[in-house]
Amino acid sequence: MSAVTTTTTALAATAAGELPQIRRRRRLSPGRPLPAARLIGPLVVLALWSAASAAGTLDPGAVPAPWTVLRTAGHLWTGGTLATDVLTSLQRAAYGFAIGLTAGVLLALASGLSRAGGALIDGTVQLNRAIPTLGLIPLFILWLGIGETFKIAIIAIVVYIPIYLNTHSALSGIDSRYVELAEVQGLSRFAFIRQVVIPGALPGFFVGLRLGVTGSWLGLVVLEQINATSGLGYMMFQAQNYGQSDVILVGLLIYGVFGLVSDSVVRLVERRVLSWRRTLSS
Question: What is the SS3 assignment for the chain?
Answer without folding.
Answer: CHHHHHHHHHHHHHHHCCCCCCCCCCCCCCCCCCCCHHHHHHHHHHHHHHHHHHCCCCCCCCCCCHHHHHHHHHHHHHCCHHHHHHHHHHHHHHHHHHHHHHHHHHHHHHHHCCHHHHHHHHHHHHHHHHCCHHHHHHHHHHHHCCCHHHHHHHHHHHHHHHHHHHHHHHHHCCCHHHHHHHHHCCCCHHHHHHHHHHHHHHHHHHHHHHHHHHHHHHHHHHHCCCCCCCCHHHHHHHHHHCCCHHHHHHHHHHHHHHHHHHHHHHHHHHHHHCCCCCCCCC
